[in-house]
Specification:
Blueprint: H1 5-11, H2 35-38, H3 81-90, E1 143-148, E2 154-159, E3 163-168, E4 174-179, E5 185-190, E6 197-201, E7 206-209, E8 215-219, E9 227-232, E10 238-243, E11 247-252, E12 257-263, E13 269-274, E14 280-285, E15 290-294, E16 300-304, E17 311-316, E18 322-327, E19 331-336, E20 341-346, E21 352-357, E22 364-369, E23 374-378
Antiparallel strand pairs: 1-2, 2-3, 3-4, 5-6, 6-7, 7-8, 9-10, 10-11, 11-12, 13-14, 14-15, 15-16, 17-18, 18-19, 19-20, 21-22, 22-23
Length: 380
């Protein structure tokens, strides 16, 4: 057990081929360090400067703006899906408004709220009288047109700089901006099949747009001056436009070609609208006159001299019998087709610049004025 190590190493049997030798290798097989490997270069004798230290974390410092503790703010949103789901649950068991649950002025009654389409007998449920949010564009300029997309989820604005801006209609945040026209946008309208949008600008150009805001066609010489308004016929095969060049034009949508030009206004034509079911056009302009046209023949049928200043907006009602007109004389008039005036509405203190009928309640409409006020009206 105790003896010469060299003699013990000689007495050990040699391993056979393929046999693993256990234990440390013999001394003669171990590599001895050389003098060159044990000598260090002079550059390693003195270590370099230590790396710079990171500054301590400061939650309120400017160097860590992304990690700054921000104040919690509540963001408003409009979500109508809960009312639609509730309406789908109970509509099979309700015959009419007599079976409907009466709404109570308590927060707990919000679960019984239904969409406006369920209250056809009560137009007051459609009054949008509560302010929700203000959205600001990066490029501060005038907004000439505002239009909802067919799905109602996004809002498109046409600006003085010729840009389309898309906003989310539920959370009110910015989504996309697009340089659509070279000049100020004056008119926008969606087709009835919700597949196409047509826009016009100050230079008289008309452009076609798809749902994804892809521009597919341009007519730069549609009018000689600003295109003030656009409107589609019921079949979407044709549309009409009016301009400051005193003309109303009827266009073939597929070919983007002019079919006829209606000349009868003595001044700028500010608004035009196509009848919901017939080939009738109504237009109003700076000559204070509202005119009714036959779109097939281009013949003027009659004129209404009810306003004392420029007619800024004309709209057909969904029943096809009422014509709503507004002018700079601060008066709104409802006229029955080929009959005397039905009713006049006074209340605005500035020029009435916008009108819109409600899609469900035919007697309910909204007007907007130059001073920023919005009025809700009921006919009758």
């Amino acid at each position: 057990m105790y003896g010469d190590p060299q003699q013990q190493q000689q007495n050990q049997p040699h391993p056979q081929a393929g046999e693993f030798q256990r234990g440390p290798p013999p001394p003669q097989m171990m590599r001895q360090p050389s003098a060159s490997s044990t000598t260090l270069n002079s550059e390693y004798h003195h270590p370099g400067a230590p790396p710079p230290q990171m500054p301590p974390y400061d939650a309120h410092g400017d160097n860590f703006a992304a990690k700054r503790m921000r104040k919690l703010t509540q963001r408003r949103a409009v979500d109508y899906t809960s009312t639609v789901v509730r309406y789908m649950q109970i509509r099979m068991s309700q015959r009419d408004s007599r079976d409907r649950t009466t709404l109570q002025p308590t927060p707990a009654a919000a679960i019984d709220m239904l969409p406006t389409a369920a209250y056809l007998d009560n137009p007051s449920t459609s009054f949008a009288a509560k302010f929700v949010h203000t959205s600001l564009n990066k490029n501060r300029c005038s907004i000439n047109r505002v239009l909802w997309t067919p799905t109602g989820r996004r809002l498109i604005t046409g600006s003085q700089s010729g840009e389309f801006t898309l906003w989310n209609g539920q959370s009110f945040n910015f989504e996309m901006i697009l340089q659509a026209h070279d000049q100020a946008i004056r008119s926008m309208v969606w087709s009835h099949n919700d597949n196409w949008m047509v826009s016009g600008d100050d230079g008289g150009a008309i452009k076609y747009w798809q749902n994804n805001m892809n521009n597919v066609k341009v007519n730069k010489s549609a009018h000689k001056e600003s295109v003030r308004d656009l409107s589609f016929c019921r079949t979407d095969l044709k549309f009409c436009s009016c301009s400051d060049d005193t003309t109303v034009k009827v266009w073939d949508f597929a070919r983007c070609q002019e079919e006829r030009s209606l000349t009868g206004h003595g001044w700028d034509v500010k608004s035009v609208d196509w009848h919901p079911t017939k080939s009738l056009l109504v237009s109003g302009g700076k000559d204070n006159v509202v005119k009714l046209w036959d779109a097939k023949t281009g013949r003027e049928l009659c004129s209404f001299h009810g306003h004392k200043n420029t007619v800024l907006c004309v709209k057909w009602n969904q029943n096809g019998n009422w014509v709503l007109t507004a002018a700079k004389d601060q008066i709104i008039k409802v006229t029955i087709l080929f009959l005397p005036e039905l009713e006049s509405f006074r209340g605005h203190r500035k020029d009435v610049t916008a009108l819109a009928w409600h899609p469900f309640h035919e007697e309910y409409f909204v007007s907007g004025s130059f001073d920023g006020s919005i009025f809700h009206w009921l006919v009758g």
